[in-house]
Design a protein that fits this description.
CATH class of the largest domain in chain B: Alpha Beta
Radius of gyration of chain A: 24 Å
Helix content of chain B: 25-40%
Number of helices of chain B: 11
Number of domains of chain B: 2
Strand content of chain A: under 5%
Number of helices of chain A: 11
Mean pLDDT of chain B: 86
Radius of gyration of chain B: 24 Å
Number of strands of chain A: 0
Low-confidence stretches of chain A: 1-25
Largest sheet of chain B: 6 strands, mixed
CATH topology of the largest domain in chain B: Rossmann fold
Helix content of chain A: 55-70%
Order of helices and strands of chain A: HHHHHHHHHHH
Oligomer: heterodimer
Number of domains of chain A: 1
Number of strands of chain B: 14
Mean pLDDT of chain A: 83
């Protein structure tokens, strides 16, 4: 065989490896990881801001719920737990805030399926970045976007007869941020196990919808059958809606009638949920090979 | 001799019962353009994925820039850039945003991001479109942007997995100009895979891979010589006489067939002037056909490189891309 033009010596099996190149020993450590997570967070934000249709849609959907369901149910049903002079619209408003955060956060997490389908996930996964930083950036991004969307809805508060002070807005934003981070993590755990968008409908119908319906967003969590009370207590979103209700009705007699747990307890439970989901998301991401 | 920048020893990857890569051993010198030529499913992408730390080898050893791919994946990743077979850009972001994102993920110092960004975009002629959303780019522009992105963090090795797949001929040639220029200017090692025979001609060395094994590894010229030289066809007024004369004078086998003499000879282009000078009155016209890598592939593997099955995959990919552009 002619091999005169060979430029390389043949490989000898078992030869010791070549010493590393010093140039590669740059940009490691936590600063790099923080910057990488920031990049992933920033991308979520840029995408959110550039998709005006999504923002308008996410504002429109709660409006429709408030206008149709709020008015429709308000005319028909009256709960014994709800004091006179209080509209169903007012009751539903915190639930709609919770719904917006839930859907925005889940949608944000689910977007990694699109990233996988359109190849961009490979760009992220092949980068010299710890999987934990990728999850952190993604969760921070989803949480920020969902909170922004939720806070935007606070503009509607006067329309439903709710008046919010600065402290209440801050309390609402904190709950939104924590629960959105937890829900984005939850969404990442599911999304990283899904290969295509087809599975998304199943997730929506059997996970997200029950989470939402059982959270007490549309009916007071009092006087329910035991099995349903148990389910509502398991649903982490219940505590978010309860905390939002506590803030929205702060100082009004409604708070006593409708809020189940103190704000701090609700926040503590959400933080626990967040810790569990974040850990699960990091573990899931680390165990994936590609 | 220089130390190899990529060093692979008996690398194996098994997916369940399927052995996709069955023990490949090779090394690549720094600054080389090295190609993997083989049909789809030969194990080219799987090997690249192992070198790029995206897949864990079942057994064997591989090192890039001196770092073992299993023990030091972070260092390997920092030392390499990769352009995947399918696009991996964020279509909703602009070219510039895609590059800035990459710079942050690879720890490019903040002060260096802008000059490097300008330089790589300039290199691939996308400077003027830097603020346009990638969704508005053509397939060729996207691929160029991906090459630019792969170079942003100054890798020592650039992996190009089927870099010209689904692109038109003009764009393909354009991309090859960049690659060759890149190696000349920065000394970047380029490791590419292809199933287009004509493209592998751009490589310094080619590994022909089939069924998860390397069946040959050499320069394109040396590989072609394995077929037994060029085919020279001489048109002559007296073919049998010319054949006898050539055999007597040069000691090579010459066959005369209806007005033509056929000689198989290494370095055919150098042989032709000698024949013409020796027997000017017996030579009317000459044609030299170099054996192609197709012939080499056929000889070594016993089958064609299966362009048909490749093209149906191409079609699927083109469809997937069209869908992705929406």
């Amino acid at each position: 065989m002619a091999s005169a033009a060979r430029t390389m010596p043949p490989v000898e099996p078992g030869r010791p490896p070549v010493p590393p190149h010093p140039a590669a020993a740059r940009s490691t450590g936590w600063r790099h990881e923080v910057r990488a997570a920031y990049a992933i967070w920033l991308r979520e934000l840029i995408r959110f801001v550039s998709e005006r249709a999504r923002i308008v849609g996410a504002l429109g959907q709660p409006l429709i719920y408030l206008a149709i369901m709020g008015t429709g149910f308000g005319a028909t049903f009256r709960s014994a737990a709800v004091p006179r002079g209080f509209s169903y619209l007012e009751f539903m408003y915190p639930g709609v805030l919770g719904m917006t955060v839930l859907f925005t956060a889940i949608f944000s997490a689910i977007s990694i399926i699109w990233d996988r389908e359109f190849g961009f996930l490979k760009e992220i996964l092949v980068a010299p970045v710890a999987r934990g930083s990728i999850v952190a950036g993604k969760v921070a991004g989803g949480a920020t976007v969902a909170t922004l969307q939720g806070v935007l809805l606070l503009i509607l508060a006067p329309l439903v007869g709710v008046h919010l002070g600065l402290v209440q807005v801050a309390g609402i934003a904190l709950v939104m941020l924590l629960v959105a981070a937890a829900l984005t993590s939850f969404g990442l755990v599911i999304a990283s196990r899904m290969q295509t968008m087809e599975g998304f409908q199943v997730v929506m119908n059997f996970l997200v919808l029950p989470l939402w319906l059982l959270s007490g967003a549309f009916f007071p969590l009092r006087g329910l059958p035991l099995w349903m009370t148990v389910l509502t207590r398991i649903d982490p979103l219940t505590y978010a809606v309860d905390a939002l209700r506590g803030m929205v009705y702060a100082g009004s007699p409604l708070a006593q009638a409708l809020v189940v747990h103190p704000y701090r307890l609700n926040v503590a439970i959400i933080v626990l949920f967040l810790a569990a989901m974040l850990t699960a998301a990091i573990v899931t991401f680390k165990s994936r090979e590609d | 001799m220089q130390q190899p920048i990529i060093d692979v020893c008996d690398l194996v990857k098994r997916f369940g019962a399927v052995e996709a890569v069955r023990g490949v051993t090779f090394s690549v010198a720094a600054g080389e353009i090295f190609g993997f030529l083989g049909p789809n499913g030969a194990g080219k992408t799987t090997t690249i994925k192992m070198l790029a730390t995206l897949l864990r080898p079942t057994s064997g050893r591989a090192a890039l820039a001196g770092y073992d791919v299993v023990a030091h994946p972070g260092d390997v990743r920092r030392s390499m850039g990769i352009v995947f077979q399918d696009p991996s850009l964020d279509n909703r972001l602009t070219a510039e945003q895609n590059l800035r994102f990459h710079a942050m993920l690879y720890g490019v110092p903040s002060a260096e991001v802008e000059p490097r960004l300008a330089a790589v975009l300039e290199m691939v002629d996308l400077g003027e479109r830097r603020r346009a959303a990638v969704a508005t780019y053509s397939g060729g522009m996207k691929r160029r942007l991906e090459i630019a992105r792969g170079l942003l963090h100054r890798p020592r090795v650039l992996f190009l997995d089927e870099p010209t797949l689904g692109l038109d001929l003009q764009t393909r040639n354009h991309i090859w100009e960049y690659v060759v220029d890149l190696r000349r200017r920065d000394g970047v090692t380029v490791f590419m895979t292809t199933h287009y025979i004509e493209e592998s001609e751009h490589c310094d060395r080619i590994a022909i891979i089939d069924g998860g094994r390397i069946v040959a590894l050499d320069t394109p010229d040396a590989l072609r010589r394995q077929v037994g030289g060029d085919v020279i066809t001489i048109t002559s007024p007296d073919a049998p006489a010319l054949a006898r004369e050539i055999e007597a004078r040069f000691g090579v086998r010459a066959r005369a067939t209806d007005g033509q003499v056929i000689v198989e000879q290494e370095r055919g282009a150098e042989f032709v002037p000698r024949v013409a000078a020796a027997f000017p009155s017996l030579v009317t016209a000459v044609a030299v056909k170099r054996p192609t890598l197709d012939d080499v592939f056929l000889k070594l593997t016993g089958h064609e490189i299966r362009e048909e099955s490749a093209s149906s995959t191409d079609q699927l990919r083109t469809m997937a891309r069209a869908w992705g552009r929406r």
